[in-house]
Design goal:
Elements lengths: L39 H15 L15 H21 L2 E4 L5 E5 L2 E6 L2 E4 L6 E4 L7 E5 L1 E3 L5 E4 L1 H4 E3 L5 E12 L4 H7 L3 H17 L4 H5 L3 H19 L3 E12 L5 H70 L1 H17 L16 H4 L8 H6 L2 H7 L1
Antiparallel strand pairs: 1-4, 2-3, 2-5, 6-10, 7-8, 9-10, 10-11
């Protein structure tokens, strides 16, 4: 049997022993012998002998089974197999980082998703694990390419030149930022083979469709935000229909310009449009300031008119009622009423003017003449005096 040591006895020693009993290495004889290597069969026999010594109960030259026991060799094989199986099963442990999702498969079929931490699945070739990065935001450039340091170094006209709804051409560069949807990471792994290529093709197609429905003037001026939002919604809808497991974060227009050949003319048009918008805004500002003031003045006039109307009506009503009362008194005593009306009228007429009363019937020796009243008086001075002085003169 190959496991037996044919040189047993006192001189054999180990597996590398020689018939002469001198110990030595496997490549040379003892005592200055030659260094010619043995043949392959001898090496294999010696290796088997050393392995047999390592295996527990495997028997050996000095062991319980000097001639090699089949029972001992079977036990060693079982131990080696058990160790190999244990090592193989241990390879099924894997770690999921916080920014990853573990996608487990058994025989290539999806069986579930796992979160961060230390996880276990059947090792290869029975099981497998794919860990897509769901935290990284990826960027796709359409119409241009950037170099190191995010410097723009190359335009791609085949992607950037687009036809507008009024049959003009616009040079449009944009960027799509996306990430793997953590809730649909399995769709991303199994349903889409080339994520960047797919997203880029869908985004470019959606942008051309949106641009084709608008005029170039609106694209260059005030509808860029709505264009980006509409493209984002269209791309997300298409990817959801494909089951791509991708979430579009933002669609950003990097530059929107007319072709270089006609760019100066469009710059002039934009400047004129901005001037027109400025004039309209100024006119609206003036109107918003003047119209309320005019409305306030009109309301004030209307209210003053209403107040005058109310006052005039009340005065007329009062005068009519007073006339009716005077007329009723006149019918009862006409003479007294005429005298009263005369006195009241004279009071109203003469009450606010300066008056000088001269007694024409006074005699030369009367008190008036003695007071020094002359036929000619400085009436202008009497007019300039106050009411108290006028009363004294009276």
């Amino acid at each position: 049997m190959p496991w037996s040591n044919q040189n047993g006895g006192g001189g054999g020693g180990g597996p590398w022993g020689r018939p002469n009993g001198n110990g030595g290495g496997p490549w040379g004889g003892g005592g200055g012998g030659g260094n010619t290597p043995p043949n392959l069969e001898d090496l294999l026999k010696r290796g088997q002998d050393r392995l047999r010594r390592i295996i527990p109960g495997g028997g050996g030259p000095g062991g319980p089974s000097g001639s090699g026991s089949g029972f001992g060799g079977g036990r060693g094989a079982l131990v080696i197999g058990a160790l190999a199986v244990a090592v193989w099963l241990a390879t099924g442990f894997y770690k999921v980082e916080p920014y990853q999702v573990g996608i487990e498969t058994i025989f290539g079929r999806y069986v579930g998703s796992t979160g961060e931490g230390l996880r276990y699945n059947f090792p290869y070739p029975i099981g497998g694990v794919v860990k897509p990065n769901v935290g990284q935001v990826n960027s796709i450039q359409v119409g241009y390419r950037t170099g190191p340091g995010q410097t723009r170094n190359r335009d791609v006209p085949d992607e950037s030149l687009m036809l507008t709804g009024d049959e003009n051409i616009v040079d449009l560069d944009f960027e799509v930022q996306w990430r793997v949807n953590p809730l649909k990471a399995s769709d991303f792994v199994f349903n889409i083979q080339n994520p960047e290529g797919t997203i880029k093709a869908i985004a470019e197609s959606a942008m051309r469709e949106v641009i084709g429905r608008r005029n170039i003037q609106a694209i260059l001026t005030n509808e860029q935000a709505s264009i980006a939002q509409e493209v984002k919604e269209m791309v997300q809808k298409a990817l959801d229909e494909y089951g791509a497991g991708v979430r579009i974060e933002v669609v950003q227009l990097v530059s929107v310009n007319p072709p270089p050949e006609v760019r100066p003319a469009f710059v002039d048009v934009n400047a004129a449009q901005q001037d027109a918008d400025t004039a309209q805004n100024e006119a609206k500002t003036y109107a918003s300031r003047e119209v309320p003031q005019a409305r306030g003045k009109a309301s004030q006039i209307v209210q003053a008119s209403e107040a005058y109307k109310t006052k005039a009506t009340a005065d007329a009503t009062g005068q009519a009622a007073r006339f009716n009362e005077v007329y009723a008194s006149y019918k009862l005593s006409p003479e007294i009423s005429r005298e009263r009306i005369f006195l009241e009228t004279m009071e109203k007429v003469l009450g606010s003017v300066n008056k000088v009363i001269i007694d024409q019937n006074g005699s030369p020796g009367s008190a008036s003449t003695a007071a020094g009243v002359l036929p000619v008086l400085p009436l202008s001075e009497f007019g300039a005096r106050g009411p108290a002085q006028t009363g004294a003169a009276r």
